[in-house]
Amino acid sequence: MKGLIPFLLTFLSYFGPMMAQETQPQVPCPAQETPAPPEKKATSLLEAFEHGHFHGHFRTYFMATDNTRQLSDYYAWAAGGGLHFNSAPWHGFNFGIGGVFNFNLASSDLGAKDSLTGAVNRYEIGLFDVEDPYNRNDLDRIEELWIRYQWKNSRLTVGQQALQTPFINHQDGRMRPTAEAGAWLEFNEWKNTKLEGGWLWQISPRSTVEWYDIGESIGLYPKGLNPDGTGSGYPENLESKGIALLGITRQMGESIKLQLWNQYVENIFNTAFLQADFTQPLENGHKFLAGLQLTHQDALEHGGNEDAGKTYFRKGGQSNGVSAQAGWQRGNWQAIAAYTRITADGRFLSPREWGREPFYTFMPRERVEGSGDSHSITGRVNWQTDNKKLRLEAAYGHFYLPDVKNSTLNKYAFPSFRQFNFDVRYAFGGTLEGLKAQFLYVWKGRIGEVYGSDKFVINRVDMSLFNLILNYTY
Question: Residue 307's CB: how many other CB atoms inside 10 A?
Fold first, then answer.
């Protein structure tokens, strides 16, 4: 890559002093490593703060994209961290506040358009601010500001927090996770059953620095096309009072785990999701693994806007999907094959600003969101050492999407592709306890027709993506 190797060597020379992470398969996002609340209960409000505790992380991330032929290549190096405080419980209540910051230490021009296609950077900008590619320093954000009431094994949290649900979640790392503002209940008083849900009124998506109302938060990432082929006009034109979420998880014996979720986005769309996972022990330590997911979506009202050119979900529209997996596990080895089908009933739509899709075939750095009449087939093998400090995973998949000119079922005009991921993670011990490293390599090759146009190729297929991450948590 043009100028990449010398920069990479310089970057590596800084790793020692910069010790400072991404979901499956990624080093976990710092927000996912939330410490347990303080055990000591306070007898006064003053003690609640005196006996509270701080936790945080430092993080450095290098990413580079190698596009085919003369198409533009990119690189970026980010560094930052976060600091969070949780008070001790007082009469069942406790308080939390936390913020994150990061800096663009070095990068190619992330705001420049490719000279041949007019395309802009896609991946590296996600380390910083997708709304301003030249924002290198003002990248701080208050991420948590909540009050919580806990009784027995349950709790209610109100305020800014980071949630993990099938369609609203941290996503796969970068420098900051997606965060939400709302009221969230976790009810754990029934044996083998967890009930959770709430109402959300704001979201601060990954790779942004502001908080947005629900309608405003949709369209900060690339918007794609309307079903008629015109550019989607929904950014800044959607109205929604909030999101209602309800999830039930039930463990049935040692073998079956069921999850049922419903996501109601007022005035825009509704998503129902069912997941069943099955584990069957076999002889000699072997295990059989299987899973099934069903997804159904419906538009609500006009899908966000009465103007069809400015709506998110076409009036009367729907989508249906099924995902399944089967695999084997023994000791430190696991191998899984998966398949996902989005039917031709309509495009599966889920704002990318809110989180990644939960399908078994998901592979980091790409999604099938925005497609209908698509097929995804993946296989993955992973292994880890006995002490779980070293983990390796290789994954390969074929993703068959509608033709790039079929905007009715291919929102982002993305060609069918194949993808290979190789993921290495290592958790240090001893004097470096708390430090985790990850290297993720992604290669994507073209399967579908692009009609000789590189605008369907750049940052999409026939490319490699390199990720090198260090994260230190305390």
Answer: 11
CB contact at 8 A, 287 and 281: yes
Task: List Cβ neighbours of 119 (8 Å cut-off, separation of 6 or more).
Answer: 72, 113, 455, 458, 459
Distance of alpha carbon 299 from the chain centroid: 23
pLDDT in tens, 378-425: 999 999 999 999 999 999 999 999 999 999 999 999 999 999 999 999
The total of other beta-carbon atoms located within 10 Å of residue 34's CB is 15
389: left (phi over 0), alpha (psi -120 to 50) or beta: alpha
CA-closest candidate to residue 382, choices 12, 26, 30: 26
**Amino acid (one-letter) located at 34:** T
Beta-bridge partner residues of 393:
382, 423
> For 456, phi and psi rounded to 5 degrees?
-90, 0
**pLDDT, tens only, 82-113:** 999 999 999 999 999 999 999 999 999 999 99
124/163 Cα distance (integer angstroms): 24
Question: What's the CATH code of the domain at 295?
Answer: 2.40.160.10
Which residue range(s) make up the domain with 39?
4-473
Does residue 320 contact residue 295 with C-beta atoms inside 8 Å? yes
279-321 residue pLDDT tens: 999 999 999 999 999 999 999 999 999 999 999 999 999 999 9
The 3-state secondary structure of the chain reads CCCHHHHHHHHHHCCCCCCCCCCCCCCCCHHHCCCCCCCCCCCCHHHHHHCCEEEEEEEEEEEEEEECCCCCCEEEEEEEEEEEEECCCECCEEEEEEEEEEEEEEECCCCCCCCCCCCCCCCHHHHCCCCCCCCCCCCCEEEEEEEEEEECCEEEEEEEECCCCCCCCCCCCCCCCCEEEEEEEEEEEECCEEEEEEEEEEEECCCCCCCEEHHHHCCCCCCCECCCCCECCCCCCCCCCCEEEEEEEEEECCCEEEEEEEEEECCCEEEEEEEEEEEEECHHHEEEEEEEEEEEEEECCCCCCCCHHHCCCCCCCEEEEEEEEEEEEECCEEEEEEEEEECCCCCCCCCCCCCCCCCCCCECCECCCCECCEEEEEEEEEEECCCCCEEEEEEEEEEECCCCCCCCCECCCCCCEEEEEEEEEEECCHHHCCEEEEEEEEEEEECCCCCCCHHHCCCCCCEEEEEEEEEEEC
364 preceded by a cis bond (ω within 30 of 0): no
Structural domains counted in the chain: 1
